[in-house]
Amino acid sequence: MTSADHPSFEIRRRLPRSDAAPVSSIGFALAVAGAAGIPYLMTIAPTISWRNGGIDSGELVTAMYVLGIPHPTGFPLYMILGRLFIFLPIGEVAFRANLLSTVCAAGTVGLIVLSGISINRRHSSASWPVILAGSATGGLAFAFSPLFWARATIAKEYTLNSLLLAAGLMLLLDWRTGRQPSRLVAFAGMVGLGMADHITSLSLLPGALVFILLVDPRSAIRGSVVLRSILVLLLGLSLYAYIPIRAAAVPYVDWGNPTTLSTFYDHVSGATYKDILANALKPPDIAQRLLFGVRGIPDQLGWPGLVAFLIGVWVMAQRDRPVLALLGFTGSINLLFASMYPVRDSEAYLLPFYLTGAVIASVGFCQIYRKFMQVIGTRAGTPRRAAIVSCNSD
To answer: In angstroms, what CA-CA distances link 111 with 4, 122, 135, 150, 220?
Structure first.
């Protein structure tokens, strides 16, 4: 009798993936996020810190406290959320602002885990525990990358940006699963909110467009879906009204006093830094900084993370090109932007590149663990189990 003739094989083939998932994906992701959050809380700065790239943390915390206008592009969503965190009755004001970064960082890790689970469940024949382990390893590799961990402990806008980017990716993956137009509308809203925190969230759109065209373009181009998506995107961007409204009140922190249309545009577009961008557009310098970002993968995700990343790229190129395009475009655009914008804290602009790399690495880790379990199962005298797994992958 072959493995295909065995009755358990047919039962296994007919069972939906959810029947083999006794552990809730969301619950597991929350647990991993909580595990990442504990070291963050243990290392969080108790007050304003200029370490870990926090050179302008004092300005940002003060702007939150007085509802002022920080340096371009103003970060209105970050200002509003930071002001809400300042109401917490714990520690001093700066600690509460730092806590916002910690919460956003932990949430980002959870969303990376959920994204890994969504991708691995779709095309991997691995068991549920292996899928969870691979997805968690990818999330934790990013969680404890030096660049991300450093920003999780100080008052900076980068972990909020990472959270919104990861949420946008997860919404697109969720849309692919159920084809619910509301997920695309929510994604548009997430991009709008992301841009109200940091303008680099715009980098999600090119990859999302390619992803949607590869998956199901017809369901996405319906007039009602497009209209609602535009309206929700503009709703998120409307938070930029915070800048002229608060500037009119002349707060203690009022960078550029952007009360007119021209000064408002200059502020939100970062016109102050255009000279820096223009002077950096030299091919040799850009190539050197691009190489620096790519070489940083093992520094941030570890050498096992680099191996898993390469395996993940190879697997997804064969089995899941839409998601590879989504992650590839998003990560590459941010890598290019970081290479073209060499300000003092430009290394932090590489975070989305490493975030998308961690999602890809979760696929590689899942394949590594699956192969390891097959080898262990075969050596333990269970070749039939290995054959069943192999058949499921066809």
So the answer is: 37, 17, 10, 19, 23
User: What does the pLDDT look like over 126-173, one tens digit per residue?
Assistant: 899 999 999 999 999 999 999 999 999 999 999 999 999 999 999 999
Mean pLDDT, rounded, of the chain = 88
Reply yes or no on whether the pLDDT at 295 is more than 50: yes
Q: Could you tell me if residue 362 is inside a domain?
A: yes
Residue 195 lies in a domain: yes
Give the range of the structural domain holding residue 76, as residue numbers without chain letter.
Answer: 25-254+274-392
pLDDT in tens, 102-119: 999 999 999 999 999 999
Residue 34 domain-assigned (yes or no)? yes
Q: Under 8 Å CB-to-CB from 113, ≥6 apart: which residues?
A: 28, 29, 32, 33, 135, 136, 138, 139, 362
Distances (CA, A) of 40 to 84, 112, 292, 355: 20, 17, 26, 17
Using a 10 angstrom Cβ sphere, with 0-12 exposed, 13-18 middle and 19 or more buried, the burial of residue 197 is buried
